[in-house]
Specification:
The protein contains 4 helices and 20 strands. By secondary structure, it is mainly beta. The longest helix is centred in the C-terminal third of the chain and has 28 residues, at about 270-295. The radius of gyration is 22 Å and the shape is globular. The structure holds FE2/S2 (inorganic) cluster and fe (ii) ion (FE2).
Length: about 350
């Protein structure tokens, strides 16, 4: 964690429902270190670990025996050994061994969460209804991650933000903050919504990056936002992919991860490209933290007063709301493509 920001809670904790969807937990390789990882997310505690083959599992952390925190235990031969009475749980969450008893009670198991790995990142599936993802609800594979033309380091930053994640998701449609916050006045701005995907196309002039900027981005579900960006930077055309993803800790707190993949400049040495990636990542971090600073200090407004030129904030929130209701109750309109061209000054 490199930042801790405090603001007043805006959403009551009681009965809070966490969004249905895939949530990113950072780079998968970080979990393959033979350790148990405590995850304080979705208002509870989970643990993540990898077996000897590298397969990552996520389980409820509270032991079904007497409630000890399994993430404080030990990983022994691919099994999680509880610190309290040494019951051992396998990757499926079943108790495989009790040191003082041969018969394993059938209820001696802890919940296993669905996970996936995509683009070198680990994701966990949350669904209060307990169902797996519907067809097509997935994190897209980025072909750039397989290409030698791209640097494969996400340069991930992790921060804790003390507010409700809706504040972050609102940003997808906020057409008018680019000039004031980022010094990048908007030339073109469009949003679309369909099913679990919400998109933004932004074109602007970037003072910070020094030229034209095109950002084509999409949320895949409630918490994973990828942006393909082309920007002039130091007289070069730089292509990059930004990752902006979060996982709720509680109703008014989330872990935010920000990362950048950069396309290498052909003909440059590895060293030069590494340096470009680092400089460019830093520039983008600066931009991102300009947003973070605003989110961290603002308060939640359910009924904002809007003016012409503002993005489709009410429509975005309708779209976002689908992740907080049973799938059977999601209004049919979310199946149709809805498009909003907010600014067109090209
Ligand atoms: S509480 Fe885990 S083994 Fe007893
Ligand atoms: Fe922004």
């Amino acid at each position: 964690m490199n930042q801790l920001i405090n603001v007043k809670p805006a959403v009551e904790a009681a009965e809070y429902r966490y969004a249905r969807g895939w949530h990113c937990l950072g780079e998968a390789k970080d979990y393959r270190d033979g350790q148990l990882h405590t995850l304080n997310i979705f208002g509870t505690r989970l643990l993540a670990f990898a077996d000897e083959q590298g397969a990552i599992s996520i389980l409820d952390a509270y032991c079904p025996h007497m409630g000890a925190d399994l993430s404080q235990g030990e990983l022994v031969n691919g099994k999680v050994v509880c610190p309290f009475h040494h019951w051992a749980f396998d990757a499926s969450g079943r108790c495989a061994e009790i040191p003082y008893c041969k018969r394993i009670p059938p209820k001696a198991k802890t919940r296993k969460w669905l996970t996936c790995e995509e683009n070198n990142l680990l994701f966990v599936w949350n669904n209060p209804e307990g169902k797996p993802p519907a067809e097509g609800v997935e994190i897209p594979h980025l072909p750039e991650i397989d290409s030698d033309e791209w640097d494969h380091d996400w340069h991930l930053d992790l921060m804790m933000i003390d507010t409700n994640p809706r504040e972050l998701v609102d940003n997808l449609v906020d057409a008018q903050h680019f000039g004031p916050v980022h010094g990048t006045p908007t030339k073109y701005f469009r949003n679309t919504f369909k099913e679990h995907i919400g998109t933004q196309l932004f074109m602007g002039d970037s003072e910070r990056l020094g030229g034209d900027l095109i950002a084509d981005s999409a949320y895949y579900g409630p918490a994973t936002h990828f942006t393909r960006m082309r920007a002039e930077y130091d007289g070069l055309l730089v292509e990059s992919i930004l990752l902006n993803c979060h996982v709720p800790v509680g109703p008014n707190q989330f872990e935010l991860r920000f990362g950048v993949l950069v396309k290498k400049i052909p003909g440059w040495t590895e060293e030069q490209n590494k340096q470009l990636a680092l400089d460019y990542v830093n520039q983008n971090r600066t931009s991102f933290y300009q947003d973070v600073d605003i989110w961290s200090h603002k308060r939640r407004v359910d009924m904002p007063v809007l003016a012409e030129g503002d993005g489709p904030i009410y429509q975005l929130r309708e779209w976002y709301q689908q992740f907080f209701m049973d799938e059977a109750d999601v209004p049919a309109m979310h199946k149709e493509l809805r498009e909003f061209i907010v600014v067109d000054n090209r």
